[in-house]
Amino acid sequence: MDVFDTDGHEQVVFCQDRVTGLKAIIGIYSTALGPALGGTRFYPYENEAAALADVLKLSRGMAYKNALAGLDLGGGKAVIWGDPARVKSEGLLRAYGRFVESLRGRYYTACDVGTYVADMDVIARETRFVTGRSVEHGGAGDSSVLTAWGVFQGMRAAAEHTWGTPSLRGRTVGVAGLGKVGKYLTGHLVEDGATVVATDVNEAALEWARTTHPSVQLVPDTTALITSDIDVYAPCALGGALNDETVGVLRAKVVTGAANNQLAHSGIGKLLEERGVLYTPDYVVNAGGVIQVADEIEGFNFERAKLRATGIFETTRRILALAGDEGVPPAVAADRLAERRMAEVGRLRAIYLN
């Protein structure tokens, strides 16, 4: 592999601490709008190449997400290679925090798959550049709260575009993944009057649904979910949920979910369009979490952050309108808006200030 073949990234940092077993990669895609902000994913990748591929995709997505969220922040991401249930420790997290600190503010980290608020508090013992901390330590707490709220706002905009009303009442929504975000999203959907069909690989998550929302219909797997009679598909687990196989059998008319990198390859957006499925770009609708943790940097205020996350409704409407006007898939329209902001605002860095 050509080490500079990193899809235009500014910086890729490999971090290792043999004593604790830390193996991490930090990807900084762009700092055109400000310091790169993105979470740390702790995951047992099959190999080093898979870990690198994931961090490169995720960090690029964060740059576009932060740009469309109106934040003065660039895009970055980190992955820790390993099974968090087996190797996560205070020493490993603190070693990772030292590497984050060594970047001197070029990268701010936060929670992601496999990492939690308590982990951010540990990492923060070694670095100033961490968000998503506990309320007890002046942070915002669980960022999945506003992630789910933003996804719900994006789904409302998609419903308005498709059926003429910004509500999911009377619609059937299939939620794949009842984790941190999927749980909150399910609550919003039930409250809005939607019928929810859901699945998860974790039995504890399924039991949560049975106990908390007994009206939710549970199915055995994602295949059963996407082939059922649903109006909206909400992927809320890992990326790559939309591929040639799943798109071919998908029955929903709208796809709006919290997972990152939902399209398995660039041609999937066009394939969805050809099948008459409206896809709201994941990095647009799931930006509520990064909005929440970004707010910590200036001193967290939940109502201020929620108001900005509510704006995902208008951002999604704008993207869907632009896609229609320019005759392109929504993902292309979203990319154009993000790139325009990064170019226009980033250009100001070239203006010398004494």
TrEMBL record:
GO terms classed as biological process: amino acid metabolic process
Active-site residue numbers: 77
Keyword Nucleotide-binding among record annotations: yes
Top-level lineage group: Bacteria
Family: Belongs to the Glu/Leu/Phe/Val dehydrogenases family.
Lineage: Bacteria, Bacillati, Actinomycetota, Actinomycetes, Micromonosporales
Start and end residues of each Glutamate/phenylalanine/leucine/valine/L-tryptophan dehydrogenase C-terminal domain: 141-350
Name the record gives this protein: Putative Glu/Leu/Phe/Val dehydrogenase
Pfam short name (any one): ELFV_dehydrog_N
Provenance organism: Actinoplanes missouriensis (strain ATCC 14538 / DSM 43046 / CBS 188.64 / JCM 3121 / NBRC 102363 / NCIMB 12654 / NRRL B-3342 / UNCC 431)
Residues the entry annotates as binding NAD(+): 177-182
Keywords: NAD, Nucleotide-binding, Oxidoreductase
GO terms for MF: nucleotide binding; oxidoreductase activity, acting on the CH-NH2 group of donors, NAD or NADP as acceptor
